[in-house]
Amino acid sequence: MRTIHDITDLHNKKVLLRVDFDVPVGSDGKIQETFRIQRQKETIDYLIGQEARVVMVAHISAVDSFRDLVGQLQDILGRSIVFVEKIEDIAAHANDLGMVALLDNIRRFGGETANDIEFARALAEGFDFYVNNDFAVCHRNHASISAITQFLPAYAGLLVVEEVRQLQGVLEAPALGKVIVMGGAKAEIKVPVIRNFLNKCDAILVGGVVANDILKVRGVDIGPSLADENSVQLLEGVNVQDTKLLIPTDYVMDGGKILDIGPQTIATYQTYIKNAKLIIWNGPLGVFEDERFSQGTKAVAQAIATSGALSIIGGGDTIAAIHKLGVSEQFGFISTGGGAMLAFLAGEHLPGLDSLQNFHE
Ligand code: ADP
Ligand code: MG
Fold it and tell me: How far is residue 324's CA from residue 288's CA, in Å, rounded to a whole number?
């Protein structure tokens, strides 16, 4: 994978920069979580510092358009942004040195999510280089991530480089001392990580909906608790009786539903976390949005933050939880990737990373 440091001369070069501005936005129009945007700053600053002319491309799911967010983006990045609404001839907006242009939500234009070749060709027109700095979408085969690399020399931005380095380190670290904490919902993207690590770690501490699925498969009656219909298929190939796979032994319940891990489980998980050398955490252990069911997530977050282990955490709700619960941010590395981080840790190939390796010269 070639990085922006490998581009020898950026002066006056037009760079199409794929960034990650996919942030939650409140009903008041305010960006609620600026972490992902802040993580883009280093690469933008580097490119501008090298006197490149930059047009940023990004998607956002919370709102339709970036139009009303430009002011906030400028404040967070500390830079003037020229907002571009039409895709035609976007390279022409990469004109003023020191300024950055931003194309409106790339998913508003047909062709992005279909990885359309003609769309990618039009996007690339007039640029000298393509830089991918959106790790969180690298597991998607989208035009501004994948097809675009057929038309421009492609390089990884500094965030993508850092994400890959950290997560590769997790895959390669010795099993001894490695502890995975896995919670949240979306079991179908979490189970592959459990499958990949069960024989390559000390323990996997499970909570959330994923734990409910495992309890169900083990034959425990979980009543109306949230679980997947197809728990058995989801967990195929995972030995649910494996002693390294820890599931809750007590719960906080409401209306018959398991909504958080209980005090005994918290104590057990704390012990594993304390003895770990490397901790990977994705997914809240309960319905943390409700104070009554936030204790498990809070206790685990605190235990990870204060442990001597290297910790690597990720997931949109996981990051929201540590901020909401006011847990000190003593984590080794916070990934911007949710699904992308999990896909990487499951040992899958990410289209966005593959295409940075096999791009058109
Ligand atoms: P992340 O974004 O960190 O990857 P997920 O999106 O997978 O995490 O899951 C977060 C959601 O899981 C939260 O909204 C939380 O309320 C929910 N959740 C956690 N535990 C439970 C539970 N026991 N029952 C229902 N929902 C749960
Ligand atoms: Mg989530």
Answer: 9
**What pLDDT shows up at residue 357?**
87
The response to whether residue 254 sits with its C-beta less than 6 Å from ligand 1 reads no
Distance 94 CA to ligand 2 centre (A): 35
Ligand 1 atom at shortest distance from the alpha carbon of 319 = 3
Whole-number Å distance between alpha carbons of 185 and 178: 23
Which of 252, 257, 287 gets mutated to test ligand 1 (max ligand atoms within 8 A of its CB)? 287
Nearest atom in ligand 1 to the alpha carbon of residue 288 is 16
Distance CA 114, CA 77 (A): 30
Question: pLDDT averaged over consecutive 10-residue blocks of the chain (361 residues)?
Answer: 95 97 96 95 97 97 98 97 93 83 96 97 97 98 97 97 98 97 96 97 98 96 96 95 97 98 98 98 97 97 95 94 84 95 98 85 58
| 185 in contact with ligand 1, CB cutoff 6 A | yes
Task: Give CA–CA dist 131/158, Å, rounded.
Answer: 10
- Of 29, 114, 116, 15, the residue nearest 64 (C-alpha): 29
pTM score: 0.95
Q: Which ligand is nearest to the CA of 318?
A: 1
Distance 344 CA to ligand 1 centre (A): 20
Q: For residues 318 and 282, is the Cβ–Cβ distance under 8 A?
A: yes
Is any atom of ligand 1 closer than 6 Å to the C-beta of 213? Answer: no
